[in-house]
């Protein structure tokens, strides 16, 4: 645990959160600053900073709970769409440096600000640029 980490405090029950799921390794709770009604955060109980820090098994557990949360949102909020994402690092907009997955439900007829921003920000890449990057990023 990192002493001043609010998510570690929530994981230990030392800070208030509206919890929707909890097991030994993972806890999910409603975001205090929701983008949409029902916006949920899924986090590992153990402190990991970001995508570079978290171990693959814990990430898999977080992802499995994310899927369960998405199904519940479809069932009880009639969510017709879900955005899931995680921000790692300040340039990505990470503000709490304890890994967390956002799960954002979208009601029928709605469209998130997130998806509107995405559509207005995307551009068409050229094939040579993609080939060059694919070579660099090849695992
Ligand atoms: Zn933490």
The N- and C-terminal alpha carbons lie at a distance of 32 Å
Task: Compute the number of helices.
Answer: 4
Number of strands: 5
Portion in strands:
15-25%
Instruction: Provide the CATH topology.
Output: HIT family, subunit A
Low-confidence stretches: none
- Classify the helix fraction into a percent range: 25-40%
List the quaternary state of the chains. single chain
Q: What small molecules are bound in this structure?
A: zinc ion
Q: What is the alpha-carbon Rg in Å?
A: 17 Å
Identify the CATH class.
Answer: Alpha Beta
CATH evolutionary superfamily? HIT-like
Classification by helices and strands: alpha+beta
What's the rounded overall pLDDT mean? Answer: 94
Q: What is the number of independent domains?
A: 1
Largest sheet: 5 strands, antiparallel
Anisotropy-based shape: globular
- Series of secondary-structure elements, N-terminal to C-terminal: HEEEHEEHH
Describe it.
- With 139 residues, the chain is an alpha+beta fold.
- It has a single domain (6-111), classed as HIT family, subunit A (2-Layer Sandwich), CATH 3.30.428.
- The chain is 34% helix and 18% strand.
- It has four helices and five strands, in the order H-E-E-E-H-E-E-H-H.
- The protein has helices at 6-11, 56-76, 113-121, 127-137, and strands at 19-22, 26-30, 40-44, 81-85, 101-106.
- Strands 1-2-3-5-4 form a five-stranded antiparallel β-sheet, with helices on one face.
- It is globular and about 50 Å long.
- The structure holds zinc ion (ZN).
- Zinc ion (ZN) binds next to helix 1.
């Amino acid at each position: 645990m990192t002493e001043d980490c609010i998510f570690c405090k929530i994981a230990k029950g030392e800070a208030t959160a509206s919890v929707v799921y909890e097991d030994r390794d993972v806890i999910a709770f409603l975001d205090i600053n929701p983008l949409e009604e029902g916006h949920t955060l899924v986090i590992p109980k153990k402190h990991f900073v970001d995508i570079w820090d978290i171990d693959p098994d814990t990430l898999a557990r977080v992802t499995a709970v994310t899927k369960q949360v998405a199904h519940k949102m479809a069932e009880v909020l009639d969510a017709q769409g879900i955005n899931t994402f995680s921000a790692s690092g300040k340039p990505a907009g990470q503000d709490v440096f304890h890994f967390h997955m956002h799960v954002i439900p979208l009601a029928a007829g709605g469209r998130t600000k997130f998806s509107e921003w995405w559509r207005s920000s995307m551009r068409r890449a050229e094939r040579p640029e993609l080939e060059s990057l694919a070579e660099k990023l090849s695992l």
